Amino acid sequence: MDIAQFVESSFGCWRSQRSVHHLAFGHFEQVISTIEIAPLGDSDEAVISLCKSNNIDPQRASHPFRMSWEGESDWDESESVQGTTILVPIPDPDDPKAGQLLRDQGYAETIPAIGKYHLTEDGTFILLTEYERAMAEEKIWFLNPNFRLRVSLIKTSAGSGVVTASFSSEIRSLSESKS
């Protein structure tokens, strides 16, 4: 599997159930959300702007997409969890299973970020992103075309300690077919 296949397999609407252990606070959180992953064109202004702001030729972008989410957390039931981010994979010209992932908004910190990704032989997508105050490690893999799992770790900036660990199961929302 290469980045194009992985991203195309991710398009659609997903129902996510995430368990989060906030080790720094000794707190457990459950988040139920809907995630929408939609393709963006190579000529999309936001894609071009994100590439240029990172001094990357927009022609190197492969399968850019927008991810939006909305959900509820049992930690703060009065506030919904929502957001959107643009993601632009930049494959390594020497290795089709590796590259960079540009984000206009990061996972661990809500600032623009560049992560390094690679895909394993079994199709697991692994993303490592260094931020100003933290480091994130994410792994996503498909059990079948409509069911995927995601594990995320937020570590200290030195990578020596885990601050947050989460596990998500995500099921694709399918249109009901009429008989």
Automatic annotation (TrEMBL):
Protein's name in the database: Chromophore lyase CpcS/CpeS
Family membership noted in the UniProt record: Belongs to the CpcS/CpeS biliprotein lyase family.
Segments crossing the lipid bilayer: none
Domain of life where this protein originates: Bacteria
GO BP of this protein: protein-tetrapyrrole linkage
Gene: cpcS
Function recorded in the entry: Covalently attaches a chromophore to Cys residue(s) of phycobiliproteins.
Protein species of origin: Limnoraphis robusta CS-951
Keywords (A to Z) from UniProt: Lyase
Pfam families: CpeS
CDD domains per UniProt: lipocalin_CpcS-CpeS (cd19433)
The EC number(s) this enzyme carries: 4.-.-.-
